[in-house]
Amino acid sequence: MQKAKNGNPDLPVSSKITPELERKVLLELGNDITRVRDKNDLILLFSKRIKGLFYFTHTLVALIDYKDETYAPILLDDQSPIRLHAKYKELVQSRFSLNEPFIQSVLQADDPISFLLEDIMYQPQSPAFLRLNYEGGIREILMTRLMKDGKPMGFLNIYSDIPGSFNDGFRNIIKGIAPQLSSAISNIIKNEELLKKEKEKSFLLDFSSDIALVRTKDELALAVRTAISKLNQKSGYVIRRINEDNTTMSPYVYDLGIHQHDQKIVSALEKARYPINDGLQNRILNSPIPLLFTVDREIQRGITSAYLQSWKMMGFKDVVGIRLRNGETNHGILFLNIEEINVQLLQGICSQISIALANIMANEQISKKQEEQAFLLDFSNDITQVRTKQDLQAAISRVLDKTMHTRLVMIRVIDDDGLHLSPFMYDNTLFKKAKIDFDKMAVERITINEPYTAQVLTSKDGLLFNVEEELKSGNTYAQLWKITGLRNMYGLPLRAGDKNIGTIWLLADQLSQLLLKGICAQIAVAIANIQANEKLLTYKKQLEVENDYLKEQIKTIYNFSEIIGGGDAMQKVYRLMSLVADSNTTVLVLGETGTGKELIARAIHNASSRKDKLMVKVNCAALPANLIESELFGHERGAFTGAIDRRIGKFELADHSTLFLDEIGELPLEAQAKLLRVIQERELERVGGKQIIKINVRLIAATNRNLEDEVKAGRFRADLYFRLNVFPIGLPPLRDRAEDIEPLTHFFVQKYSRNTGRKIRKVAPKVIQQLRSYTWPGNIRELEHLIERSILMTTSEVLDDVYIPQHTDAEKQEQAHLLNRSLEEVERSHIIETLKRCAGKISGAGSAAEILKVPGNTLHSKMKKLSISKSDYFG
Amino acid sequence: MKIVVIGGSGLIGTKVVNQLRQKGHEVIAASPATGINTITGEGLAEAMKDTDIVIDLANSPSFEDKAVLEFFQTSGRNLLAAEINAGVKHHVALSIVGVDIMQNVGYMRAKKAQEDLIRQSGVPYTIIRSTQFLEFLKGIADQATQGSEVHLSDVAFQPIASDDVASFVAKYALAAPINGKVEIAGPERFEMYEIVARYLQHSNDPRKVVANGRPEYFGGEISHAALVPAGGAALGAISFEKWWDKQLQKA
């Protein structure tokens, strides 16, 4: 290496310089330099000042980087002759190694050192700029070390196209100015660093105040967008949030920058859920520092996540991923499409985004909670207005279907027995697609020990059955659940206080715990209320019915509290009654009308173990044929037109008591069949109902007909007859128990004299005689009414006359009545009958005389004697 | 090749950087002073760009148990994450002989954690486990001094000169990754107190070395053979005497 010769006398500018001038130049330059704040001003100023004194073409300053032992230009003078060279741009961005003889000789020289380019530029390790400058006409270079803290920090390069430009004066000036230049440059660098830091700080501060105002997702998107566009115009970003399942991430807010992208790709990206552990997202989440990665390289690495492919298609190459973290919790990732990263700035941004994200999420959660609470409040309002099952059903379906996108499958309620669960309400449209009769399935009663029910009832807050998992574990219900397409089945216990009252089953994708608990509590209360209400209504109805019966009994039967009669026939009846009363055997009471069948039935009931409950009486003859069924078995609401309410049948009413079926012989055949079934099975279904009700009823039937004859005539079912005729008790007619007529008479006299307020002390013996000789076709009922009438007619204290019925047409029909007539009466009525038949013709052909086989005159005289007038047979 | 030496301005680092530069490689001496910080991540991604080999010689600024563990974990994680992103082909780290059998010592636990991170990272690697450096002798004497006496253990000790360490590191770095560990040690084996006594003697230090017979190293109890390689180790060329002569020359 050869150093350039000092001094050249042919220079355009005088290179001779006096010490005064040198001092002056140094002073002025020093003053200038202290005022400079911008690095380009510095080099321009320097250039201008020196050029006035010495000749050179251009100058530049290079800085050493000890990290990799290189140097690179930082301050460039715009006079460079090669600045239009194709390689100039590349050159000023290059880094040149310190490990070569040219620059090493500069480093070792204490004073400025000059080189003729042709001497050094061909040396193998010499930097390229030497040759390029030579090509641009430069011939000589003056290199000066710039020192800082006793260590070289860079170089001042001065170029000239005339060899020998750098004389001693020039060198002295440069040597003298070098320390000032060094400190000016390092000050400028420091200053720039400070400015940059300050800019970053103020940027972060601005961002911080923007972020502080963020309350919603959209505001966040805007704030991040603004911040990023301040940093870099083009870059797109996406913030992904960790989903609730904690295994996937989804885009939360994004901006794709200024480029247009295929909408299809964008919307696919937007909707996807990416697994966290895909080899990239987890790397970012685990990294405390921002990670710069290349999309292509990640794809090559074998990461298959779809978003990388999409990004590639969209033209994103380099991306920085930074985790968004608050305390120890990761919330998500910010992906930024940039090539350079400023770690501190990004971390500053991200910590703020993290806080904003956490806030938004907290906000969202709070407003969701609030919504839920408001919703519960509304539901609560609805529920408080519920009085019936229908209201409840409406309220629940409004809430679940419409607001929560949930389907109520079924509510089951624990029965009074504490073991069975009956369906309370259910949605029979739910499994329509399955083509199964959900009605039928629902009606089946299950017990609290049914495995799923038991699990739910013992759980604290209910259970969640994942449909897919249940399918895998072989739960047969799950196949049904799957049809709805909803993901989860929620089974929850309904509790009123600590008591389980039932279960509720809901199908949904996702339900909040708070909502579920709130809803269940309210439904439970509503059901408990409805149940109480229903029970109350039932009791009320039952009491009303019982009250009616009691009133009826007081009116008619209560006074027959004793059965009167000590005769043999009655003794036999008593004996039978005492035999059968204690058992549950069906009793058939037979006897003519008015013989006191109901009294006997009641006596049997009162002597039985069921006497504490009211005996229920049904008069089969008094019921309209088409209402018999509903009367006996009850009906559900809507079972038939006019059935506006649920009604309990007589059988149910008589549960655990006695049902007295009076006039059983009058029951239509159709009803007989139904009755037979109930007697056989001891269970019934209400009309229009689906539920089977077990009953425990003792039957007593009564009739005045001869049932055997009825069976023969086909008017009565033989099987029913045999069912009823287990224990027949026949009641004797009053005419067969003449000995009981006197005590009965006294009994009735007493009863009616008390009722009417008359004082009858005695019954005349003649009256007793009259009563005994009467045949009593109406039996005791006739006797009772006869006495009642006679008492009313009596004026004295002695009953001395009774009005035993005499001649009425109706009575003629009665066999018993006929026996009571005198010969004259028989003769008279027979003649009148015959005359009527003969249209009043007394004698001659086709006349009454001919029929009666007496001569016409005899008939005339008999008619006179019996005082039969024309009005008797023409009436 | 482009090589980044983390801790490139330290005792071993500067030597490794020099050796590799002399071989004509593009070497970046990374340290917080040169704007590359493995704890904050500053400058890391840029430095890693197009890098082939990373040599991690960084040491914790604090030796308190918790701090040192945190340092090696955070630094290791950040560095390896950046290497994965940049596609670095070889990660070389300097560790300590016997690190896994001295887990009662906090520093050893931290170094072990660093080794584990490297093994799990998926980056091709070479872990170089070295014995103590001859340069440590003074420090060992100082921390064991009680008045005018130096109380030291008689555990086996095979210190290596830092020049040798640097040569080994440079050599293994340029070789193919072995995805395992190698051990390096000095050419001579002593009992610890013995070599320290020799050092003090050479440097005319009046302190007297007393063997206390307790098997310990920096306060932690260790086995007698914990600090020396158990099997075949690569041995350095610089003996104690040679090293001492070199020290004198430098001075």
Give an overview in words:
The complex is a heterodimer of chains A (875) and B (251). Chain A has 875 residues and is α+β, with helices and mostly antiparallel strands. Chain A folds into 6 domains: 19-194, 2-Layer Sandwich (Beta-Lactamase); 213-367, GAF domain (Beta-Lactamase, 2-Layer Sandwich), CATH 3.30.450; 402-536, GAF domain (Beta-Lactamase); 557-732, P-loop containing nucleotide triphosphate hydrolases (Rossmann fold), CATH 3.40.50; 735-816, Helicase, Ruva Protein, domain 3; 822-873, Arc Repressor Mutant, subunit A (Orthogonal Bundle), CATH 1.10.10. Helix content of chain A is 48%, strand content 18%. Chain A has a 6-stranded antiparallel beta sheet with strand order 3-2-1-6-5-4, with helices on both faces. In chain A, a hairpin with a 2-residue loop joins strand 11 and strand 12. The N and C termini of chain A lie far apart (173 Å). Mean pLDDT of chain A is 82; it is low at 1-5 and 807-812. Chain B is an alpha/beta fold and 251 residues long. Chain B has one domain (2-250): 3-Layer(aba) Sandwich (Rossmann fold). Chain B is built from 8 helices and 14 strands. Chain B has a 7-stranded parallel beta sheet with strand order 2-1-3-4-5-9-14, sandwiched between helices. In chain B, strand 4, helix 4 (106-121) and strand 5 (125-130) form a beta-alpha-beta unit. The longest helix of chain B has 22 residues, at 65-86. The two termini of chain B are 35 Å apart. The chains are: A alpha+beta (875), B alpha/beta (251). The interface between A and B is medium-sized, with 22 and 25 residues.
